[in-house]
Design brief:
Elements lengths: L1 E7 L2 E2 L8 E8 L2 E9 L5 H11 L3 E3 L5 H9 L3 E3 L6 H10 L22 E3 L2 E3 L1
Parallel strand pairs: 1-5, 5-6
Antiparallel strand pairs: 1-2, 1-3, 3-4, 7-8
Helix pairs in contact: 1-2
Length: 128
């Protein structure tokens, strides 16, 4: 099984659609067997589901994610765990321990309304 985590400087990147990298963990017998950091090439929201599918990801862990991206991930057969923060290695450990909640709904709804300026999609919601 492969688990991808949105990634930047060792931490869970907080905006799925803008993640510069994923850390891809190979899980075997409930433990991390290996990991590698892969660059996204700055592709955006819509293409990331296909990117992860091609990388062989079964699960994706992130900070904030919108409803369209959750749907694209579901269509690609990838389970989403959103609302994670902190170190990527700690997030994967929480996943392995079964303490990381699976995303049932979007944690960032900035695509559903008009806004201006930067925003911070993180745990529990989208803060503009």
């Amino acid at each position: 099984m492969k688990v991808a985590v949105t990634y930047e400087n060792g931490e869970v990147f907080q905006h799925f659609g803008r993640t510069p990298q994923f850390k891809l963990y190979e899980i075997e017998n409930g433990k991390v067997n290996s990991s590698q950091v892969i660059d996204t090439g700055e592709i955006g929201h819509g293409a990331l589901a296909g990117f992860l599918q091609e990388a062989g990801a079964d699960v994706m862990i992130c900070g904030g994610i919108g409803p369209g991206a959750i749907n694209a991930m579901a269509e690609s057969g990838i389970k989403v765990y959103a609302g994670a923060s902190g170190l990527a290695d700690e997030a994967i450990q929480s996943y392995l321990e079964g303490t990381l909640p699976e995303a049932g709904e979007a944690t960032c709804d900035h695509h559903d309304h008009e806004h201006h300026g930067d925003h911070d999609c993180g745990q529990g919601g989208c803060h503009h």
